């Protein structure tokens, strides 16, 4: 049975958090799929990357990020960080009473639907790959699935630098991804929301025949479904309100965000967290 939500609650924002700018790939997907929804974003740019941190620290940061968004009055939270999704999402869901959507399950489901050979690659941060979350999710859907994983820790700083199609980024991608050619994969999950920023160099490295799965795009589909099921979609069709908060370097975030989202004059505010 659906809960009865009032109009002001439906009009409140979708909250999104990530360790830095990578979550903007999810914001862009949400803007396209849910063009009338308000969005409040927090990028923890002072503490990026999360992928090299211990599980204990990742959980601590995840709770702080979630509480910040809850203080802004959001109606749902999108964990636009595969590391947090892999390590802390169950803890968040058990502690907070609102919809919390992660990256792992939607990304794995999209890959399972896309692959024809059953040979899937996964790239992510050290923490995401060590958690084996994508492999477990894919094997749950089909235990015959062959899953090959590779940590790509340098991709996050390259994305944060804005080097989306840079010779250095290409060189790093070629080094990280060359083993996938021997694995004969037909699908590759971009298991970090920073990685779609480097989509061009990644595609060149693995070849045009490999389908790239953006976990952020898959998560946006899940957000729409969950909000509809809970009767939480914004009933109004006004111009949406977008707010962006970061824990450091707001000017750099603003410059990259305006380019990436194609929206001039982003409102970016630096806040203290933790």
Structural class by helix and strand composition: alpha/beta
Encode the helix/strand succession as letters: HEHEHEHHEHEHHEHHHEHEHEHE
Tell me the CATH topology of the largest domain: Rossmann fold
Q: Give the class-level CATH name of the largest domain.
A: Alpha Beta
Description:
This protein is α/β, with parallel strands linked by helices and 274 residues long. The chain is built from 14 helices and 10 strands. The chain has 2 domains: 7-102 and 217-270, Rossmann fold; 104-215, Rossmann fold (3-Layer(aba) Sandwich). Helices cover 46% and strands 16% of the residues. The strands form 2 sheets. It has a 6-stranded parallel beta sheet, sandwiched between helices. Strand 9, helix 14 and strand 10 form a beta-alpha-beta unit. Helix 6 packs across helix 8 (133-141) and helix 10 (167-177) packs across helix 12 (199-206). Mean pLDDT is 94; it is low at 1-5.
């Amino acid at each position: 049975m659906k809960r009865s939500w009032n109009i002001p609650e439906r009009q409140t924002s979708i909250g999104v958090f990530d360790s830095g700018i990578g979550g903007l790939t999810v914001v862009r997907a949400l803007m396209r799929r849910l063009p009338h929804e308000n969005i409040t974003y927090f990028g923890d740019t002072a503490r990026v990357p999360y992928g090299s941190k211990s599980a204990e620290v990742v959980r601590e940061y995840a709770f702080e990020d979630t509480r910040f968004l809850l203080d802004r009055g959001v109606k749902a939270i999108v964990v636009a960080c595969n590391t947090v999704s892999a390590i802390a999402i169950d803890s968040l869901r058990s502690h907070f009473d609102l919809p919390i959507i992660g990256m792992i399950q939607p990304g794995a489901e999209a890959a399972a639907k896309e692959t024809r050979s059953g040979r899937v690659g996964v790239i992510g941060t050290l923490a995401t790959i060590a958690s084996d979350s994508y492999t477990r999710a894919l094997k749950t859907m089909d235990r015959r699935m062959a899953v090959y994983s590779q940590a790509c820790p340098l991709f996050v700083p390259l994305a944060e630098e804005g080097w989306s199609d840079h010779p250095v980024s290409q060189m790093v991608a070629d080094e990280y991804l060359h083993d996938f050619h021997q694995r004969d994969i037909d699908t590759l999950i971009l298991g970090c929301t920073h990685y779609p920023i480097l989509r061009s160099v990644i595609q060149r490295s693995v070849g045009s025949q490999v389908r790239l799965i953006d976990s952020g795009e898959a998560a946006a589909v899940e957000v729409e479904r969950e909000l509809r099921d809970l009767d939480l979609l914004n009933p109004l069709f006004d111009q949406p309100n977008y707010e962006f908060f970061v824990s450091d370097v707001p000017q750099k975030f603003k410059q990259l965000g305006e380019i990436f989202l194609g929206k001039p004059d982003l409102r970016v505010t630096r806040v203290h967290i933790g």
